[in-house]
Every structure is written in structure tokens, then in C-alpha cells.
Design goal:
The termini are far apart. The chain is built from 9 helices and 14 strands. The longest helix is centred in the last third of the chain and has 20 residues, at about 330-350. Helix content is about 35%, strand content about 20%. By secondary structure, the protein is of the alpha/beta class. It is globular.
């Protein structure tokens, strides 16, 4: 089955200026831009040596800026896309400094909480920024294939989605997380909530529970169960356990979609044996196919870095032609952040204790 797995690239791509030089820039942004042929005018980071190391590693980076003001001035001069990859709490401060009307891609999450998300949205609207949030999982090749199969009606009406993650995540790679009151949903499962919304829209309600791990007591919750209800037939579930330290044999990381005419199951290999990961795998079964075996579609690439092409390309296409939709706009991303907030409130509110039943 031939289905396009890569997003449409802009014919005349805009240059990019990058603010931040952390691991996500090295592992995802710059490799993706290299693959897409995007040019990076330059990069700024408070620790200049980190930016210089990236310039040395990636040929697409032209220069290292000495100051943020220098980067902003150059970005304005060349009508560049501002690529923000900073701790979520710093985005508002930077957004205020950008020239009105600038195109900007903001690294997820959209703030540390809903109030910060509101602030980011307000700034972007007041300054007329052409803004998007880097919720990139819908642009992963396997999810683009799944969306196209659904759009073609191949698996019928979708009524069930499940995201299962049972892996060992080395949280120590991100020191800043240990200082935060929210971790798993805000920094990881937010991707899954955004992905589900890209297929099904906003649910009518969400149930959630997120808990800490007994061997990670200095870190906020790392295990989550969420149920998203849509109507009397349609439900989505997100189940994550990042503390499965018992080897790769029984690790799981999949996205399953069931419809009235067929089903899809995707292995999201990046999460398994992280950071090395496993290859992605896409399988499907159509009920009108008399063969019992599931079929497989070869997937070219995975979550990192391929999906990061989609968020930048999508923003640039919209900047160049406003008639082209921007699915990961800040306005839409705010709806994902509202769902994150709803999940945390559900978890805090808690379930029903059997002792309360008389």
C-alpha cells in the first residue's frame, strides 16, 4: 500500500534562527532541518560553547550569535522563523522580545501549567505572531500513514485508540525535571493527548491517575493512566509506566487504532531501550481481507528526527500561504494544554473510596 509518509516541504523555505542549544536541538531539530534542506542562519545559547559545538557538528548552521538581540535583529532582517527550544517557563519572556508578526515555533510543552499556556497564547495573539507549538508526533511517518488510511475509509469508523508505554526511561538525562511538580503527563504523555486530539478532537471528559515510582521518590509522577471518553462508542486510553527496569523482553510502546472495518497497530520504537530505541513498525488488518495474517507497511524513519520536519515545514507552508491550515498552532496547542490540566485535576480529585459506599 503506497501512502506518503513525509510532509509537504515549502518550495522556497524560509531561513531559521535557533534559540537554545540543548539535547533536543542536537538530536531532533538540526538533524530534521538537515534532512529537509532548511538553512539555519545561526544559533544563540547563554552557554556559547554549546552553540559553537552544534555549529561545528551541523553544516547547515551559519553562525553563532553573541547576544539574543543580535539573533533577533538578524531574524527580522531575513524574515526568518524563530525556533525556540528553551525550558517552558522562559518562552513568554523571549516571545515578548520578538518583532510583531514574526513566525515562531515554540518547543513543547506550552508552558509549565495552564496559566503559562494562557500567557503564551495571549502574547502570540497580541503581537500577531504566526506561532505554532512543536507537538510533532502527528507528523511521525507512521501516524501520517494511519491518518491517510482513516481518511480513505479503509478501517471504517474509528471507535477505539490505545497508547501503551511500558519501558524504562532514564529520567536522569533531564536534570531540570527533578525540580518540577509535574513530569509525566506534562512532558511525555502530552504528546499522546495531542496525537489523539489530532485524530478524534476534544473528548467530552477525561479520567486520570498519575503516580510516583518508589525508586524515583525525588521525581514527580512517572506512571499514568488516562481514559478519554467521546461518545457512547468511542474511547481512547493512555497507559504509561516508565519504570519497567526488567529488560527489553516485555517492554511495550504501541499505538493501536480500531475501526469498524479494520485495525492498525504501530510500534513506537523510540521509547523502547531509550535513547537507542528500536525501529518503528506499522501493521494493519482489514476485515474484508480473508487472510488471517496482519500486513505490514515499511516505515521510513520514526519519531526522531523525522517528525520534526513536519512541524517546521507545516509552519513555513502556512507562513507562505495562509490558506494552508496550521494544525499545531498555539491556539490548537492550548486545547491540548487544557486537556493536560484536566488530567491533573482528575488525578488530584481522586476516585471513589469503597469505604464511602454504604
Amino acid at each position: 500500500m503506497e501512502i506518503v509518509q513525509q510532509p509537504k516541504l515549502p518550495k522556497n523555505p524560509l531561513p531559521i534562527v535557533v534559540i537554545g542549544a540543548g539535547g533536543i536541538i542536537k538530536d531532533a531539530h538540526l538533524p530534521a532541518y538537515t534532512m529537509a534542506g532548511f538553512k539555519v542562519l545561526g544559533i544563540y545559547n547563554k552557554t556559547k560553547s554549546k552553540a559553537e559545538a552544534l555549529k561545528k557538528e551541523f553544516d547547515i548552521v551559519d553562525k553563532v550569535y553573541n547576544t539574543l538581540n543580535e539573533l533577533i535583529a538578524d531574524g527580522k532582517k531575513h524574515n526568518a522563523v524563530f525556533d525556540l527550544a528553551l525550558p517552558a517557563g522562559l518562552h513568554s519572556e523571549i516571545l515578548e522580545q520578538l518583532p510583531d508578526g514574526s513566525p515562531v515555533l515554540i518547543q513543547k510543552p506550552m508552558g509549565e501549567n495552564l496559566e503559562e499556556a494562557k500567557q503564551i497564547l495571549e502574547i502570540c495573539q497580541r503581537k500577531n505572531l504566526v506561532s505554532a507549538v512543536n507537538f510533532q508526533l502527528p507528523y511521525a511517518p507512521y501516524n501520517m500513514v494511519a491518518k491517510e488510511m482513516i481518511n480513505r475509509g479503509l478501517i471504517g469508523d474509528v471507535y477505539d485508540m490505545e497508547l501503551m508505554v511500558c519501558v524504562y526511561t532514564p529520567w536522569h538525562l533531564w536534570d531540570f525535571l527533578f525540580q518540577l511538580p509535574r513530569v509525566e503527563i506534562l512532558y511525555h504523555s502530552v504528546h499522546y493527548l495531542d496525537l489523539i486530539r489530532s485524530f478524534l478532537g476534544n473528548p467530552k471528559k477525561i479520567y486520570a491517575s498519575t503516580l510516583k515510582h518508589p525508586k524515583m521518590k525525588d521525581l514527580a509522577s512517572t506512571r499514568t493512566t488516562m481514559i478519554l471518553d467521546y461518545d457512547e462508542y468511542t474511547q481512547a486510553r493512555v497507559i504509561t509506566n516508565h519504570g519497567h527496569e526488567f529488560g527489553l523482553q516485555h517492554q511495550q510502546s504501541y499505538f493501536k487504532i480500531e475501526g469498524t472495518k479494520g485495525a492498525i497497530k504501530i510500534r513506537i520504537g523510540l521509547s523502547m531501550n531509550y535513547p537507542k530505541g528500536l525501529p518503528a513498525k506499522f501493521e494493519y488488518k482489514l476485515l474484508d481481507d480473508k487472510q488471517d495474517a496482519w500486513k505490514e507497511i515499511e516505515i521510513k524513519g520514526g519519531w526522531f528526527p523525522e517528525s520534526f520536519i513536519g512541524t517546521m515545514a507545516g509552519l513555513q507552508n502556512h507562513v507562505l500561504d495562509r490558506s494552508i491550515p496550521l494544525p499545531h498552532s498555539t491556539k490548537n496547542a492550548y486545547e491540548t494544554m487544557k486537556l493536560v490540566e484536566a488530567a491533573y485535576r482528575s488525578s488530584e480529585k481522586g476516585g471513589v473510596a469503597p469505604t464511602d459506599i454504604e
